[in-house]
Amino acid sequence: MAFAQNITTDKAALLALKAHITNDPFGLITNNWSDTTSVCNWVGIICSVKHKRVTSLNFSFMGLTGTFPPEVGTLSFLTYVTIKNNSFHDPLPIELTNLPRLKMMSLGNNNFSGEIPSWIGRLPRMEELYLYGNQFSGLIPTSLFNLTSLIMLNLQENQLSGSIPREVGNLTLIQDLYLNNNQLTEIPTEIGALQRLRTLDIEFNLFSGPIPPFIFNLSSLVILGLSGNNFTGGLPDDICEDLPSLGGLYLSYNQLSGQLPSTLWRCENLGDVALAYNQFIGSIPRSVGNLTRVKRIFLGVNYLSGEIPYELGYLQNLEYLAMQENFFNGTIPPTIFNLSKLNTIALVKNQLSGTLPANLGVGLPNLVQFILGRNKLTGNIPESITNSSMLTLFDVGDNSFSGLIPNVFGRFENLQWINLELNNFTTESPPSERSIFSFLTNLTSLVRLELSHNPLNIFLPSSFINFSSSFQYLSMVNTGIEGMIPKDIGNFLRSLTVLVMDDNQITGTIPTSIGKLKQLQGLHLSNNSLEGNIPAELCQLENLNELYLANNKLSGAIPACFDNLSALRTLSLGSNNLNSTMPSSLWSLSYILHLNLSSNSLRGSLPVQIGNLEVVLDIDVSKNQLSGEIPSSIGGLINLVNLSLSHNELEGSIPDSFGNLVNLEILDLSSNNLTGVIPKSLEKLSHLEQFNVSFNQLEGEIPSGGPFSNFSAQSFVSNIGLCSASSRFQVAPCTTKTSQGSGRKTNKLVYILLPILLAMFSLILLLLFMTYRRRKKEQVREDTPLPYQPAWRRTTYQELSQATDGFSESNLIGRGSFGSVYKATLSDGTIAAVKIFNLLTQDANKSFELECEILCNIRHRNLVKIITSCSSVDFKALILEYMPNGNLDMWLYHHDCGLNMLERLNIMIDVALALDYLHNGYGKPIVHCDLKPNNILLDGDMVAHLTDFGISKLLGGGDSITQTITLATVGYMAPELGLDGIVSRKCDVYSYGILLMETFTRKKPTDEMFSAGEMGLREWIAKAYPHSINNVVDPNLLSDDKSFNYASECLSSIMLLALTCTSESPEKRASSKDVLNSLNKIKATFLTYPGW
Question: Where is the Protein kinase domain (predicted)?
Answer without folding.
Answer: 807-1087
